[in-house]
Description:
1 helix, elongated, 22 strands, eleven-stranded mixed β-sheet, six-stranded antiparallel β-sheet, mainly beta
Amino acid sequence: MALWGISTTTETAENNYGIPKHLSENDRNNSPWNCFADVRGWVYRRYGTNEYSGLSSSYYDEVLVPIAGLNSTTAVSDVGGTGIGTAGPVAIFFEDPNRSSRISLGAGNGTAGIVTNTTGYVHVVFNELVFAGAGATVRIRTFDANDANESTAIVGTAASSGSTQYAWSSTAALHGSPDVFENFNGQITNRVSFAFTTPSTVLTANVAISTTLTTTGQTVAIGATNIFVNSVTGVSIGSSLTVAGKLTNVPIVAVGTTSVQIGTANTIATTITAGLGVTFSTRTNATKLKIDLSRGFVGVITDGSNGVGVISSFTSQFGDVLLRNVGGAGTTGSVGIGTTTLTVA
């Protein structure tokens, strides 16, 4: 099998969407999501700053595999076949907020948190150069720390790079140099950045720490404050206690080796017998952000070769889900990491 793709038949998840196969999600220094097709062939974009997206004006391109007509279905390529045609989305993720984690991409250990009322970014990656008009949007869903109680959605918006942009688009092949775009209101890239503002306040939820049972042989009397349990692992003062059918999310004021203590204001007028299910939880103030894959993007993003609108679905024409846990912003010399869920706290 070829080490890179040259036609639409190679654009599958198993075949890395045609992108040269030596580029791995697990590589700290090279990401497949910085590689794309244009009139020159397969190109790797090396960024000079930690702005790894179409908002960057500091980068240089390295042609990995020269293939004439790679990003077109009308031109015959160097190897005698048609190209890969209209650009398609191949990955989507939240950018790492700190942009500086030198860590293993595959392990998924990047920053997954961001503070309230600040700017975050979603990256949508294509396997070809695209022209993304400013104002294109993605939708971000919001949940509590238990991934429940969905709240108001957030909109991420593609901004303009605000600078002169260069692209080896369709006409560049005719004169052997990149076309210059001084007034394009958007991003010319394969990696489109959508900015959003995190919520100013967060959701609250009781997140389970552990489950156990009330202790055999220990019946808790009416009005008692000490609840005997089989395990107090992970429990601390301020955690909450739920006993099946008896107590719900009652604050814990003290922790012993075989029991926890609740306040007198939370006691009940019935006994608590042995063997009842117990859940310990902690009150968590956080909002989880998740990219709405069902919506895709809304707006004008066109193919860099033929000007045709690209596929807007995030479930992809390739038949697989595009959400990734790799490839975020990074720093110079490291592609960093992205994440599929971002927590606001």
